[in-house]
Amino acid sequence: KNVVTWNTIIARYAQHGHGIEALHLFEEMQTLDIKPDKNTYVGILSACSHGGLLHEGRWYLNAMKHDHGIQPTIEHYACMVDQLGRAGCLEEAEGFIHKMPFPPRALMWRTLLGACRIHGNLELGKRAA
To answer: What residue ranges are annotated as transmembrane (predicted)?
Structure first.
């Protein structure tokens, strides 16, 4: 198996809400000395988002930089905005959008807007719109 194969399996687990399984697979991948890449971390952050693993998502975003020297891309930041929104951390998600080193994409604001609707935050929803 190569990194592309591992990334594909991790992404499938993530899409189906099996966050813990995706994280276990990621750990197994590393024990086999297969180096993660930026796509691996998109899958991991997505798995944390869909699996309700906010603490883990924050940890993995930090680990990708410090443990593997991978600089987060806008896709990684988008995963974190989704994760924070799903967890109801709406103000933090907004702050995350403003602090990231990229201009935010409309999708991020729509993601935050959807989370505001779900969590009933009208004021932040107006700002996100």
So the answer is: none
* Three-class HEC string of the chain: CCHHHHHHHHHHHHHCCCHHHHHHHHHHHHHCCCCCCHHHHHHHHHHHHHCCCHHHHHHHHHHHHHCCCCCCCHHHHHHHHHHHHHCCCHHHHHHHHHHCCCCCCHHHHHHHHHHHHHHCCHHHHHHHC
pLDDT at 49 over 90: yes
| pLDDT (average), residues 114-129 | 91
Query: Among residues 61, 3, 49, which one has the least CA distance to residue 30?
Result: 3
Residue 67, judged by CB atoms within 10 A of its CB (0-12, 13-18, 19+), counts as exposed
Query: From CA 126, how far away is CA 124, in angstroms rounded?
Result: 5
How many CB atoms are located within 10 Å of the residue 49 CB?
Answer: 24
pLDDT at residue 1 greater than cutoff 80: no
How far apart are alpha carbons 32 and 86 in whole angstroms?
33
